[in-house]
Amino acid sequence: MKWYRISALLLKYYYISINRIDRLFDIFFWPVIDLFIWGFAYLYIEQLSNFNLLSMMFGGIILWIFVWKASQDLGTFVLEDFWARNLYNLFSSPIKLSEHIVSIILFAFFRGLVSFLFQFILAYTFYAFNIFQFPLFFLALSILILSLFGMALGLLIVALIFRYGQRIQVIAWSSVWIVQPFSCVFYPLTVLPGWAQNIAIILPSTYVFENLRSFLNQQTVNYMQLFFALLGSVALLLVMAVVLYYSFQHAKKTGLLARGD
Predict the structure, then answer these.
(1) What is the pTM of this model?
(2) Cα separations (Å) of 111 from 70, 86, 116?
(3) What's CA 176's distance to the chain center, in Å?
(4) DSSP 50
(5) What is the pLDDT of residue 210?
């Protein structure tokens, strides 16, 4: 991989993001809508019960942004090249698949970081919620696990696009919301039915939110559990990278990159 080619692609995605309203909406509008909807819901629940749900809900919303951005941006940026019939041109140049994917991953993480900071400012200003009440090590480890998990999900989406083309594009937008209920973002693992718990326990994201609630309930954060979740995210990322490689080879053989259908 060559850094100057990656930086050129980063520059491309930067200009796409600052010149298109829908790309800016991804960073600011939807995260803000999420925050205020749950904020209003909390204000209503507060009238019915003294139980403080704000920290649990906002902690989940703000950290989930890293899974959302990493997975959705990978699929969306590749799809945009499909729609523009640009993948053939892109891979006719010296740019490698790995450089293309790494550039999107880096840019998606940057976009996630901007959304994270924006949500932090709004949550602190309007609801006095401070995400930095959590230990910094826990916060950094959680962001790393969720980002890697989101990247693995994004690689799977890109692999499916290279394998089946644009007809599976709906997965690029919906996959993160399919996974979210099983990640126990807003409720504990124990409230899920048995079959759903069997899915939830294999997702690294579940352990981040379970430990977030443990901290808020004055219980000990299980760092060993988070360490295994990190290993699981890395393993998942490597597996999806292999799946993507073979899907890309298949797309080259069938001419899907040139047809762009």
Answers:
(1) 0.87
(2) 9, 23, 9
(3) 7
(4) -
(5) 93
